[in-house]
């Protein structure tokens, strides 16, 4: 039962019928229209008001939105900081809120905090305290104002990074002078699937059934082809508001599946941007009553999986003669193929089958404009002789801290033996 205010002298049975009340919920806007359009009610501006209750099958008129959208800025300098961290599975996101005495501009101005690691699978019950270190700040699109989202990583009380803290190792790699000097850029294509609640079946699909074959859904429009556009658009705007360097979005090949792109982002910022964008997407799907899935193969059979293609370039790749630098990087990547595959997401073997625009998980390959390869080089990069490469192997549930830092490590810091390099060069030459 919801409550609103109505003039007590006019809330008689003759003013509005029971049938009209029960037919649909009465919103505050509808009440305003009723008052303004009734001459008798307009003349009673001095009438006392009392609470008038309305019932309907859907429960109705709520003032929660007024409080959720309340701007407290004129009344206090305090802000709300939402501390966000990665949970025990390595893919689940957790968060909790705290009040900060004034607006902040840098994570160093924020206090460390702790949480119960035994409840997230990250610490034993007898020693459950895990410490959050604030690392990156974004504007909060849900609370607005000066409120913020805070990306954190997790440590033991003694200051050691816990096993699920992949950011710590990534930050070490990105702080290496050789990596800094090469200014690594990343453009990450995050694919995801929207599922109906309870049945956990893709949005727009008949429950227990299948839509028409793939073909008409990619970048499509129309009620019979595009499912979840409002969620995609809401996420797009929320990321722009937050300060995330989101560069685009589109409907994907499988119906109910979408993609957005983050970047170009430099170094560790790429991981921070992607994790924050995922958190925002989780919150939006929560509000929409839809389940977010980052499973790399949410539907078995003749359906595309979900990846997180990672576009990568260094300063040397972007300059004249960069194509030769790209080919050397590809050679290094071929020699560490198994290392990368093992770090590129759980369940990726169900996606990397050699079908549906993927390469086989056990075979490294590269090609120009070939989406069936492990590494794709664009036509424009080949033409210009400089540019970037696209690593198409990462799964949709990959950890962006791991993938971005591993690409930098393999192509900038790791040196193969001359023998291995020569053998790999021969194999790759046969593919071109």
From TrEMBL:
Signal peptide: none annotated. Keywords: ATP-binding, Chloroplast, Ligase, Nucleotide-binding, Plastid, Transit peptide. InterPro entries: Gln_synt_N, Gln_synt_N_sf, Gln_synth/guanido_kin_cat_dom, Gln_synth_cat_dom, Gln_synth_gly_rich_site, Gln_synth_N_conserv_site, Glutamine_Synthetase. Residues 79-159 form the GS beta-grasp domain. One of its GO terms (cellular component) is chloroplast. GO terms for biological process: glutamine biosynthetic process. Its main location: plastid. It is found in: Plastid, Chloroplast. Residues 166-432 form the GS catalytic domain. Its EC number is 6.3.1.2. It catalyses: L-glutamate + NH4(+) + ATP = L-glutamine + ADP + phosphate + H(+). GO terms for molecular function: ATP binding; glutamine synthetase activity. It holds the Pfam family Gln-synt_C. Homooctamer. Belongs to the glutamine synthetase family. This is Glutamine synthetase.
């Amino acid at each position: 039962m919801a409550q609103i205010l109505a003039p007590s002298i006019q809330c008689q049975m003759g003013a509005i019928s029971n049938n009209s009340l029960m037919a649909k919920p009465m919103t505050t806007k509808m009440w305003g229209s009723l008052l303004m359009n009734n001459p008798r009610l307009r003349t009673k501006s001095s009438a006392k008001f009392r609470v008038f209750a309305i019932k309907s099958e859907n429960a109705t008129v709520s003032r929660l939105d007024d409080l959720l959208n309340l701007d407290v800025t004129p009344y206090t300098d305090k802000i709300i900081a939402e501390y966000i961290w990665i949970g025990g599975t390595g893919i689940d996101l957790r968060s909790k809120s705290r009040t900060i005495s004034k607006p902040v501009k840098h994570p160093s101005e924020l206090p460390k905090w702790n949480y119960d690691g035994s409840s997230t699978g990250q610490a034993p019950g007898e020693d459950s305290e895990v410490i959050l270190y604030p690392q990156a700040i974004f504007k909060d699109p849900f609370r607005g104002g000066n409120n913020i989202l805070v990306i954190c990583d997790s440590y033991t009380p003694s200051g050691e990074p816990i096993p699920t803290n992949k950011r710590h190792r990534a930050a070490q790699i990105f702080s290496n002078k050789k990596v800094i000097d090469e200014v690594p850029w990343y453009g990450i294509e995050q694919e995801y699937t929207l599922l109906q609640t309870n049945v956990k079946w893709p949005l727009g699909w008949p429950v227990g059934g299948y839509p028409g074959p793939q073909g008409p859904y990619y970048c499509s429009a129309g009620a019979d082809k595009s499912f979840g556009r409002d969620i995609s658009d809401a996420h797009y705007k929320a990321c722009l508001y937050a300060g995330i360097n989101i560069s685009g979005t589109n409907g994907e090949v499988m119906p109910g599946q979408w993609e957005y792109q983050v970047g170009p982002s430099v170094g560790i910022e790429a991981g921070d941007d992607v994790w924050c964008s995922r958190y925002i997407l989780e919150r939006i799907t929560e509000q929409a009553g839809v389940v977010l899935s980052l499973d790399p193969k949410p539907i078995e059979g003749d359906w595309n999986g979900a990846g997180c293609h990672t576009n990568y370039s260094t300063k040397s790749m972007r300059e004249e003669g960069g194509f030769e630098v790209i080919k050397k990087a590809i050679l290094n990547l071929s020699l560490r193929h198994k290392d990368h595959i093992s770090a590129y997401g759980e369940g990726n073997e169900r996606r990397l089958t050699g079908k549906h625009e993927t390469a086989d998980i056990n075979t490294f390959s590269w090609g120009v404009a070939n989406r069936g390869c492990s590494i794709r080089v664009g036509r424009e990069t080949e033409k210009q002789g400089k540019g970037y490469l696209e690593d198409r192997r990462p799964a949709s549930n990959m950890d962006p801290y791991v993938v971005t830092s591993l690409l930098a490590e393999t192509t900038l810091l790791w040196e193969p033996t001359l023998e291995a390099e020569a053998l790999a060069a021969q194999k790759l030459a046969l593919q071109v």
